[in-house]
């Protein structure tokens, strides 16, 4: 990871699993010609293991430690689009670090929409349960106060990629202008 132009902040995407952080993040990075990084990818690359294996073998607390380490690394970057794992918001220190050089957008979606998006995927250990919809509803409720600490909330249900990205790009452009 190279540090880029020191003057521009990062665009940081947080939000529940399946809200589109990776898809939106990759598209934004291409359109804005910013580099892209994902904390889950860093964890897998640095540990040489899959996230589901880390959860299964070492448990969630061990995963959260690796996640905080990945957050510390990406928080030192500039001019990146940073996608994060859905639980990154749970530790206040993670959010403080991500906000230091970045503007944090939280992608939201309804539980039903998230369920439709993730139901055929098997790489998320926390959703490998017979009643994933109920689990999603419970987790969304528990995590709501944490997601609310983002700088901006972005509703994705019923919105196209173009609409979502248009909003993020406008807010980002405005905040760069204001801070210069
Ligand atoms: C998690 C979300 C996942 C991954 C891990 C835990 C969570 O990332 O970090 O499975 O606690 O919400 P995505 O949000 O990219 O699926």
Structure notes:
The protein is an alpha/beta fold. The protein is built from 8 helices and 5 strands. The protein has a 5-stranded parallel sheet, sandwiched between helices. Helix 1 (21-32) crosses helix 8, helix 2 crosses helix 4 and helix 4 (60-74) runs parallel beside helix 5 (92-100). It is globular, with a radius of gyration of 16 Å. The chain binds shikimate-3-phosphate.
List keywords for this structure.
five-stranded parallel β-sheet; binds shikimate-3-phosphate; globular; about 180 residues; alpha/beta
Question: How do you describe this structure in short?
Answer:
The protein is an alpha/beta fold and 180 residues long. Helices cover 53% and strands 14% of the residues. It contains 8 helices and 5 strands, in the order E-H-E-H-H-H-E-H-E-H-H-E-H.
Compute the number of strand runs. 5
Unreliably modeled segments: none
Tally of DSSP helical segments: 8
Hetero groups: shikimate-3-phosphate
Query: How much is the average pLDDT?
Result: 94
Specify the biggest β-sheet: 5 strands, parallel
Strand neighbour order, sheet with most strands: 2-3-1-4-5
Dominant shape: globular
Taken as a percent bin, the fraction of beta residues is: 5-15%
Helix content: 40-55%
Helix-strand pattern, N to C?
A: EHEHHHEHEHHEH
First-to-last CA distance: 25 Å
What structural category arises from helix and sheet content? alpha/beta
What gyration radius follows from the Cα positions, in whole Å? 16 Å
């Amino acid at each position: 990871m190279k540090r880029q132009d020191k003057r521009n902040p990062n665009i940081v995407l947080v939000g529940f699993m399946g809200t589109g952080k990776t898809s939106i993040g990759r598209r934004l990075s291409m359109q804005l010609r910013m580099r892209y990084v994902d904390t889950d990818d860093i964890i897998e690359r640095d540990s040489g293991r899959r996230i589901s294996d880390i959860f299964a073998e070492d448990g969630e607390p061990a995963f959260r430690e690796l996640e905080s380490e990945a957050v510390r690394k990406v928080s030192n970057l500039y001019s990146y689009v940073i996608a994060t794992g859905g639980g990154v918001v749970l530790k206040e220190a993670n959010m403080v670090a991500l906000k230091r050089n970045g503007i944090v957008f939280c992608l939201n979606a309804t539980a039903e929409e998230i369920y439709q998006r993730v139901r055929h995927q098997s790489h998320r250990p926390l959703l490998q349960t017979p009643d994933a919809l109920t689990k999603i509803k419970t987790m969304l409720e528990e995590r709501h106060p944490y997601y609310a600490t983002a700088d901006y909330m972005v509703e994705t249900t019923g919105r196209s990629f173009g609409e979502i990205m248009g909003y993020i790009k406008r807010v980002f452009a405005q905040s760069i202008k204001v801070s210069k």
